[in-house]
Each structure stands twice: as C-alpha cells, then as structure tokens.
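My current task is to audit a protein record that another person submitted. I need someone to confirm that the token line plausibly describes how this chain folds. Take the sequence as given and treat only the tokens as open to question. This is what I was given:
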Amino acid sequence: MTFNKKLISNIFYIVLLALIIYPKTRVYFLRMLSFSPSVEKVSERAKLSTYDWQLQGINVPDMDFNQAKGKVVIVNFWATWCTPCVAEMPSLESLYKDYGDKIIFVLVTTDAPQKVIPFMKEKGFTMPIYNQLSSNPPQFETSTIPKTFLVDKKGEIVIEASRADWDTGKTRKLIDNLINE
C-alpha cells in the first residue's frame, strides 16, 4: 500500500473527527479552543434590574440572591450533559479556589441533585451549585449554555460569555480590580 497525500490527509481527518466525537477528548479540544472572555464596554453594560432570585443549594445552603447585592458575582448556567459546560468548569473551579472567599459564585443547573452531586465528586469540583426556585433576573436570560456573567458591585454585567477560559491573567486582573473598587 502506498501512502499518497490524499490517503494521509483522509486518515488525519478521520482520526481528528474520531477524537472530537469521543466525549473525553472532545472536552480537551473544547478547552484548547476556549479564549479569555471579552469585557463589555462601559457604555454597553447591562445593569441588573433586580436581585430577587431564590436559589436552592445542591451542595450548599439555599441562597437569596439579594445577598449578592454590592458584591462581585460570577453566575454560570450549565448542565452535566453539556460538553462545553464541562470543558470550562476547570477554569471556573480554579477561580473559585482562589476567589471563593472574595466574590460570590453562583453556578445554576436544571439537573437534579442526584445527578449533580456524583458528577461534582467525580470531577473534584467544589463550587456552589444551585437549582432555581424562582425566575432569574431578566439580564441573565439565555437560550444557550454554558453562559457566564461577571457582575460588578454596582450590578453591571462586566462580562457575558459562553465557552470561555476563565482562568487567565486578564480575567484575574479584572476580578482583582472589581474587588478593589
């Protein structure tokens, strides 16, 4: 069998496609394709119209989102079955380990606790996970997941992003600045 350029090219694409389709390597490739999230221009930032949002804790106590008023907050909508969600969670976990006592993390899922708890344990994630008990603020409306919002102390959405690498120097510097405002 002779290997010509077309055959080698076809083999390469088949292997690449197989790696992307296989769930464990798909997460790896999605992580490689993630970029630091973009900051919204100050003039274009949406401001939360309400903090009235009740959340049921899955691995933490229940939360009244009013507790987040005047604080820096990361809100993430995700699901255990969502490959892009799972791909960005290690970067969120890294931020949580470093900033969990300085800002509020709210990771929201529609998955049942009996599915979320084993998932979190298997992956070694410790972030606070919630189910919604009431409607979220309208500025958090989304039809896709993952969707993550970084909110400043004034209630302005500084970042709104999907499929991002949250553990970057740029993001950490921004969070440090928001904490110190």
In short: Residues 35-180 form a domain with the Glutaredoxin fold (CATH 3.40.30.10). The chain has two domains: 1-33, 35-180. Residues 29-34 have pLDDT under 50 and may be disordered.
